[in-house]
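Hi there,

I know you've been waiting on this one. I reran it after we fixed the sequence typo, so this is the corrected version. Both the input and the resulting structure follow.
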Amino acid sequence: MEEKREIKVETHSNRDFRTYHTNFQISNSHLEIFYRPLRESSNEYLKKVGRKGSTLIQRVMEIPGITGIFSAPYSVGVEKGQNFIWEEIEPQILETVEKS
């Protein structure tokens, strides 16, 4: 029987940053940090996070308002621009993490 995927959202004192903790592996690398826009130099680090992690990072970066991402094996931290609202973008983030 497959274990149910869980995602816990952690808020921080910086209201533009949230961490999404999972009970399933989303990255092969200890910690990598990415900023918008992803550059060609990011490819080396995208390889480190593995195919799953790379796809997750690229898809989250496609969400309007996302300015930065950190990834670890069981969590992803997301920073949004100040003029964006979590209630509008968080459902897209959660769906993307769930599908990773």
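Quick highlight: The chain has one domain: 7-99.

Best,
R. S.
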